[in-house]
Specification:
Helix content is 31%, strand content 25%. By secondary structure, it is an alpha+beta fold. Helix 4 runs parallel beside helix 5 and helix 8 packs across helix 9.
Length: 388
C-alpha cells in the first residue's frame, strides 16, 4: 500500500519551508518514525518522520525545493522490503570478465571542476545556497542575521530587493493577510501598575530564591489574561469557516523577538500554570529562540496572544491579530505619569494597553470589558491570586 509523506501543518506565522536534506534515497528501507527529511523554515528546522515501515518508493520534492503545508514530499510502499544486493554467483560472473584496459594518462586526468565554494557559501543552508546560486549573489557581501551572523535565505532575498540585509518579509506578508481578511478593531486603556511594582519589590528577592527565576511583569499579564478569558470566552474563540470555535482552555502565545524576527511560542494550559512556571517557560522559549532551538510544535496552536512592545520602548501601538486567533493584547513601556488619586496628584507607573480583535465575532463591548477586566486585576493583583 502506497503512503504519502506530506509537509506537516506549518504554524500560522510560517508561510513555507525549504527541503534542507534527505536522509534516505529511493529504494531504501525505512522504519516507522525514522527521520526521512529535514525542512527549514525562517523560524525552525523540523524533521519529517516515516509514517510506516516500508521502502521509500519515490521522492517528489528534491533538496532546495520550497514547499507549503500538506504538500506531498515522497511516497512510501508500506510493508515492502528493499531489494537484496547482488548474489555471490553474480559477483563471480562479474569477476570473470576481462579487466578493462588501464586508462591513459590523458584519460585519467580529472575533468575541470567548478571553482570551490567560498567559506561563506559553504555555511549557507540548502535554501540559501539555491537562492545565492540562482541569482549570482556573493554571500560575503550580505549581512547575516542568523545565529552567529550566518547568512540566511531571507537575508539573500532581502538583499536582492533592497541591496542590503533587512528584516524577513514573511511575517509582514502574514500580518497583511490578517488585516485584509478580518474586520480588525483596536481598543485602548491604561493601567496603574503601582501595586504590581510594589509586590515585585517586596517579594521579588524571595521569589527568585525559591524558584530560581526573576518575577517579571509578563507572568502577571498572562495570569490576568487567563482569568479574563474565562469570563469573556468569545475573546478566546476562533473562526473556522462559518463556525465559531470556543476553547475550554487558555493556550497563550507569547511574542518573543529573535534575530530572524518575531516568533510566538505557546504556553500550553496557561490557566493551570503558576507565576514561576510562566516565567521559566518564557525564559526557556526566549533562549531556544535565540539559539535556533524552537520546535514546530512550540509555535503551533495558541488561542490568544500577548505581545510586549514596551521591551523596545514602545509607548503606544495597535498590534495585529494572528489568525486563526481572534484577539491580541499589546503591552507597552511603563512611564511615570501624573495621575489624580483620591483627589491628589501623584506620580504612578502607568502603561497603555491595547486589544486588537476580530470584529466579526467579538463585539466592541466584549473587547472593552475584557480590557477593563485586565486593568482591574493588575491594579488589584490580589484579585487574580484569588481568581476574582
Amino acid at each position: 500500500m502506497a503512503l504519502e509523506v506530506k509537509v506537516p501543518v506549518l504554524p500560522e506565522s510560517v508561510a513555507d519551508a525549504t527541503i534542507a536534506s534527505w536522509h534516505k534515497k529511493p529504494g531504501d528501507t525505512v522504519r516507522r518514525d525514522e527521520n526521512l527529511v529535514d525542512l527549514e523554515t525562517d523560524k525552525v528546522v523540523l524533521e519529517v518522520p516515516a509514517p510506516a515501515d516500508g521502502v521509500l518508493k519515490e521522492i517528489r520534492k528534491e533538496t532546495g525545493a520550497t514547499v507549503t503545508s500538506q504538500e506531498i514530499l515522497a511516497v512510501i510502499e508500506e510493508g515492502a522490503v528493499a531489494s537484496a544486493p547482488a548474489t555471490a554467483s553474480a559477483a563471480k560472473t562479474e569477476a570473470a570478465q576481462p579487466a578493462a584496459p588501464a586508462p591513459t594518462a590523458a584519460a585519467s586526468a580529472p575533468s575541470p571542476q567548478p571553482s570551490a565554494l567560498s567559506p561563506a557559501s559553504q555555511q549557507l543552508s540548502p535554501a540559501g545556497q539555491r537562492v545565492a546560486t540562482e541569482n549570482k549573489i556573493d554571500p560575503t557581501q550580505v549581512g547575516g542575521t542568523g545565529r552567529g551572523g550566518q547568512v540566511t535565505k531571507e537575508d539573500l532575498v532581502n538583499f536582492m530587493r533592497t541591496g542590503a540585509a533587512a528584516a524577513p518579509a514573511k511575517i509582514a506578508e502574514r500580518l497583511m493577510q490578517s488585516k485584509n481578511s478580518i474586520a480588525m478593531l483596536t481598543s485602548f486603556n491604561e493601567i496603574n501598575l503601582a501595586k504590581v511594582a510594589l509586590m515585585r519589590k517586596e517579594l521579588g528577592e524571595q521569589f527568585e530564591k525559591a524558584n530560581g527565576i526573576k518575577l517579571g511583569y509578563m507572568s502577571f499579564f498572562v495570569k490576568a489574561a487567563c482569568e479574563a478569558l474565562k469570563r469573556h470566552p468569545i475573546v478566546n474563540a476562533s473562526v473556522d469557516g462559518n463556525d465559531v470555535i470556543y476553547h475550554g482552555y487558555q493556550d497563550i502565545s507569547v511574542a518573543v523577538s529573535t534575530d530572524k524576527g518575531l516568533v510566538t511560542p505557546v504556553l500550553r494550559d496557561a490557566q493551570s500554570m503558576g507565576f514561576a512556571d510562566i516565567e521559566k517557560a518564557i525564559a526557556a522559549y526566549a533562549k531556544a529562540a535565540r539559539e535556533g532551538g524552537l520546535k514546530l510544535e512550540d509555535l503551533q496552536g495558541g488561542t490568544f496572544t500577548i505581545t510586549n512592545g514596551g521591551t523596545f520602548g514602545s509607548l503606544f501601538s495597535t498590534p495585529i491579530v494572528n489568525p486563526p486567533q481572534s484577539a491580541i493584547l499589546g503591552m507597552h513601556t511603563i512611564k511615570e505619569r501624573a495621575i489624580v488619586e483620591n483627589g491628589a496628584v501623584v506620580a504612578a507607573p502607568m502603561m497603555y494597553v491595547a486589544i486588537s480583535y476580530d470584529h466579526r465575532i467579538i463585539d466592541g463591548k466584549d473587547a472593552v470589558l475584557f480590557l477593563v477586566d485586565i486593568k482591574n486585576q493588575l491594579e488589584n493583583p490580589q484579585r487574580m491570586l484569588l481568581g476574582m
